[in-house]
Specification:
The chain is α/β, with parallel strands linked by helices and about 350 residues long. The strands form two sheets. Strands 1, 4, 5, 8, 9, 10, 11, 12, 13 and 14 form a ten-stranded mixed sheet that branches. A four-stranded mixed sheet has the order 3-2-6-7. Strand 4, helix 2 and strand 5 form a beta-alpha-beta unit. Helix 1 packs across helix 11, helix 5 packs parallel to helix 7 and helix 12 packs across helix 13. The protein is globular. The relative contact order is 0.13.
């Protein structure tokens, strides 16, 4: 099983890019007149969820630019209770470097959400080995270290920084996790599929817990599996069928977990989750979701799942807590949680949407 340290100054530390997401709601950007601003980042979201909902001590290592958008993002990091470790950059007032912007409308019904990026001259892409004092960061004890495929796709230096962080985490006794989060658009800019697979394989040699579905495993790592395009999105057979290949090619990986989602319309999904842990398989129930904002649901799952493992819960409880928190997160606006631990526990045990008095 995972050898998780019993205590540390930080329960969880993530390494990744912080971004701001502009959200015009159900209005497409070509007709938008106003937007909400959400602070996000695939790696940060997990730390924020673990802090705000699950009451864990968490931190994030990232780039921060000294200008108003950076100030906005830093305020939200503080508000979510996450301890920052920043490599700071100065903005030249015109061209950057910048905090990245993600544009994402919510879609509605038969109209799918549309996501696109402006990551031009992004500060996080300039991060490189040596930018963080890992000895000091890990000096007080860190129980779990996490990063992801989105950050790894940003430049030639970010994967090397992830590997440096993973090695430092291992040396300090922390468990390591990685969310493959395969994004074809990002990897197309960063060298294409061949580069993605070679890069992610090198990172995964240092990983204990892997988050990713069968498509992530196939496209991100080049593992062989069933045709995921034509199979049921709720059938775990394709996922479980790939575990023998994971064990063979990545023997250091002890846990693989993912969500399962069948999309009937933008706002109506069926939702489940599965995990493989040292040869055994576990599956959460399936529920029908009425989705308000789907962005961040996978990070919500990861947070609940990791929380349970950090607290010694058995795998069958861990998969349910991850599933429950991911489901609840899709009912809120934004990328990070507004749920409470009590709500997650109740839903994981079969709670309903009856009014709470």
């Amino acid at each position: 099983m995972l050898n998780i340290p019993a205590q540390g100054a930080l329960d969880f530390l993530s390494l990744g890019a912080l971004v701001n997401r502009l959200d015009p709601g159900i209005i497409p950007f070509r007709k938008a007149t106003e937007c909400r601003i959400h602070v996000s980042g695939g790696e940060f979201n997990v730390a924020a969820n673990l802090s705000d909902c699950f009451r864990m001590n968490t931190g994030v290592a990232s780039a921060m630019v000294n200008y108003p958008i950076g100030d906005l993002i830093a305020e939200r990091v503080r508000a979510m209770g996450v301890k920052p470790f920043y490599k700071r950059f100065e903005h030249d007032g015109v061209t950057g470097p910048n905090m990245a912007t993600v544009y994402s409308d919510q879609g509605l019904g038969v109209r799918a959400p549309v996501v696109f990026y402006n990551r031009s001259n992004e500060a996080a892409a300039q991060l490189k080995p040596g930018d963080f004092d890992w000895k000091t960061i890990f000096g007080g004890g860190v129980r779990w270290f996490h990063s992801g495929g989105i950050f790894s796709a940003l430049s030639k230096t970010t994967p090397e920084l992830v590997i440096e962080g993973m090695k430092a985490a291992k040396a300090a006794g922390a468990v390591t996790s990685f969310d493959l989060n395969f994004r074809a658009k990002l990897w197309q800019i960063s060298g294409g599929l061949e580069t993605a697979q070679a890069t992610l394989r090198r990172i995964c040699e240092h990983v204990d817990v892997l988050v990713g579905n069968e498509e992530d495993l196939q496209k991100g790592l080049g593992l062989k599996g069933q045709d995921v395009e034509n199979s049921s999105k709720l059938d775990p057979a394709a996922f479980f069928g790939m575990m023998a290949d994971v064990v063979k090619q990545l023997p250091n990986v002890k846990v693989v977990a993912t969500t399962l989602r069948e999309v009937h319309s933008t706002n109506d999904h069926d939702w489940s989750a599965v995990c493989w842990m040292e040869g055994k398989t576990y599956q959460a129930p399936t529920c029908a979701l009425k989705v308000y904002d789907r962005v961040g649901g996978g990070d919500g799952f990861a947070a609940g799942f990791i929380y349970a493992l950090l607290n010694g819960r058995p795998p069958e409880e861990a998969i349910k807590l991850g599933w429950a928190h991911g489901a609840l997160l899709t009912t809120f606006p934004g990328d990070t949680t507004m749920a409470t631990l009590e709500q997650v526990e109740a839903f994981a045990k079969g709670g309903s949407a009856r009014i709470q008095r």
